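[Meeting: bench + compute handoff]

Bench side (C.D.) handed over the final construct sequence. Compute side (W.E.) agreed to return the predicted structure before the next meeting so the bench team could plan truncations. Sequence as handed over:
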Amino acid sequence: MTHPEKLSLHGRRMLDRRRFLGTAGLSISGIALTSLLAADGLLADDQPLTAGGKMPVRPKIDPHRPYAPRPAHFEMPAKQVLVIYCPGAVSHVDTFDYKPELFKQNGKKPPGLPAVTFEGPTGNIAQPFWKFKPRGETGKMVSDLIPHLAEQVDEFCFFHALTTETSAHPQGENFFNTGFTMEGFPSLGAWVTYALGTENQELPSFVAINDPRGLARSGKNNFGNGFLPAAFQGTDFNAKHPPSNLYRPSRVSSKADRGTVDLLQKLNAQHLERFPGDADLAGRIASYELAGKMQTSVPSVMDLSSETAATLKSYGVEGGSQLRGEYAKNCILARKLLEQGVRVVQLFNGSDPSGGNGITNWDSHSNIADTHAMQAEIMDQPTAALIADLKQRGMLENTLVVWATEFGRMPFLQANGTGRDHNPGAFTCFLAGAGVKKGFSYGESDNFGFKAAVNPTSVYDFNATLLHLMGLDHERLTFYHNGLERRLTNVHGHVVRDVLA
């Protein structure tokens, strides 16, 4: 027996429970289908606008060839990027941000300074622990802590009024490298390779060369893919530790190894034929095939035997601490990867202090004179040699170099009297190479280096500028995730055009 249709007071059909659930189910299915189509870029005429009011520009990625090179949004000189990241917060007032007032106020506590900061009670103003003097033709004042980098200041473009949103190291690393303090968001390198792919199909598109002592505090999140396809996560290895399973076991002949690989390719192709259009499956197969190719491509890149004695000496492989030698080899590896066309190389100088014994990064809450000196001995000469090597090989013409840290340090000591606390209100990073002005400084901190004073620049602005230098519009490079058009700069950021060459 059927029930008569229910009518409203106006004679229109009313939904009974069964009709309501059926209609709702169809609606929800339609919404889900729309979301899937949008995520695959199949609704190009009906994509939502970004927060900046622009239409997203999603790269067209062949799931069978996720690393294939793709065009940028617009033409820029930079085709590759090298990020030299120093976890632990390098003190800007002891390196690149010269503040004469600190010498005048040394040992005093002028009004306006906080009584308590991140780590606890504050002490008095402390002048830099190293002497500053003018460098290069620009006369830029730089500390004796980093004499080799100081020699190259005419190549650098400094940001002296950077600010961040956190004073904690893990969240600071996340924010600088992914644009969010929380974990689970794509890193800069993942965004760039998602957009542009890479030129060399035998090597990863994005390599993270971690410190010889281990990962930084936020670990693989610093070079992770987040919600982007897994193909765009940074591949983690360094000169001391090659990728796992890279070398063929001695008991397996090269002929047998080749036969195994050929068989796997055949089986993968047959499996893919059973599931046409499965982008995730195609992407996984492409990743496995790249891993196989790396067995022949990576050993040659990691082989430093062809480097001249002069090159090894300039990088500081010998004659210093063991850690400097290991980091110097990482710097040479970075250059070789860039030479081979790897799109993004992220080089770390510092690791998580809980992962080893003693000092492992730039964090200097006590004995800053010793801790910063130790880190600088490892970082300075190899890093300077790497930048100089890129220049003399003509590679700076299309390589953007980024030297960075998550925040700065305070101009006053902590109550213990020997270290500086975290300072999210002002810090310094620099760029070099393709597309940026040389011997240029943008922004200023106040007289103490305590707060950004002239042209304050957020990390969002900094990352927007990095993407622009790679030919990418930070407002249009998006990925649809959980109902939102996500991007590296969230809903913020402006390109700092004053630094563009």
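W.E. noted at the follow-up: The chain has three domains: 17-46, 80-239+306-499, 243-303. C.D. will use this when planning the next construct.
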